[in-house]
Design a protein that fits this description.
It comes from Deinococcus grandis. InterPro entries: MoCF_Sase_C (IPR005302), MOSC_domain (IPR052716), Pyrv_Knase-like_insert_dom_sf (IPR011037). One of its GO terms (molecular function) is catalytic activity. The structure is a single chain. A hairpin with a 5-residue loop joins strand 7 (about 105) and strand 8 (about 115-120). Helix content is about 10%, strand content about 30%. The chain has an eight-stranded mixed β-sheet with strand order 2-1-6-5-11-8-7-13. It contains four helices and 13 strands.
Length: about 180
Amino acid sequence: MTFQQAQVIAVARDGIHRFSKAPQPGITLLAGLGVQGDAHAGDTVRHRSRVRADPAQPNLRQVHLIHAELFDQVAADGFRVQPADLGENITTRGLDLLALPRGTQLTFPSGAVVEVTGLRNPCAQIDAFQPGLMRRLIGTDDTGAPVFLAGVMGVVLEGGAVTPGDAIHVTLPPEPHEPLRRV
């Protein structure tokens, strides 16, 4: 894997639980919590479906990252998706987020560090945003098992600012690498 060109192209947050987020000139990551001012920030789960299941479980979904290359792929099928539309906090380019192993650390110039915890599972809200898009965000692997394409989730290890144009330094965890699973 090469990561020389990995960068942030957009950042977003929203203090209210909505599907899409509001693009921002910058966001602040808070260690152990997530994005300052975002409805999903907290040390325990904030995603409503996860809260209903067990409100005390740790929040492994503090930060949502999506690769902009996904927008290019779905555009070929007629879907128009822009940064923040799918609810991500950080939109990247030049980094195959889905290929990263669990525990990968993404470091930004401010010193902020996000550790990748797993895959975002596409939900029915995606079809409410654009009918048919959810089906496009779930692929299959060689065995026929579902592959989630809607980005990755992470937790904030070190706080700091993240802005469009920031380079992303990638640190892989020690081997053996654990593949990403839905969180």
